[in-house]
Design goal:
The protein is α/β, with parallel strands linked by helices and 132 residues long. The chain contains two helices and eight strands, in the order βαββββαβββ. A hairpin with a 7-residue loop joins strand 3 and strand 4. The model has no long low-confidence stretch (mean pLDDT 96).
Length: 132
């Protein structure tokens, strides 16, 4: 359904460090980095799409955050959700919801929410039940 998600950033090097650590935790691999643009993208470990891209806005205006906008990344385990939250905070992000179950979504929804250092809201979610 999705080809790519593009998140506008203003400060490329700190954003690249933040997202590189986060993408490693969720199992995405880097597709490209071009500091001259600047932009970078990651893709699923298996497959070429969807892409997750960070970069300066094409119109040359400063990047801004939208109210109510969020990108949620899939994690392979609840432990990866916990690690993603810890990494986000260690790299200058801010908490928007600690890792935990959110049964009002569904019984196995385990997620966390945070903002990157520029204020973009992200989620990291595992939908799997705990193994028996």
């Amino acid at each position: 359904m999705l080809s790519h998600v593009y998140v506008g950033i203003n400060n490329f090097e700190p954003a690249l460090a933040f997202y590189s650590a986060l993408m490693e935790i969720v199992g995405a691999r880097q597709r490209f980095v071009d500091a001259s643009q600047p932009w970078a993208a990651w893709q699923p470990a298996e497959g070429a799409r969807p892409l997750f891209v960070i970069g300066k806005p094409y119109d040359g205006q400063p990047a801004g955050c939208g109210n109510g906008q969020m990108v949620a990344l899939m994690a392979a385990s609840r432990e990866a959700v916990d690690r993603a939250h810890a990494a986000a905070l260690a790299l200058g992000g801010s908490c928007e919801g600690a890792p935990g179950l959110r049964p009002h979504y569904h019984a196995n929804y385990y997620g966390t929410y945070f903002r990157d250092p520029e204020g973009n809201k992200l989620g990291v979610v595992c939908h799997d039940a705990l193994p028996d």
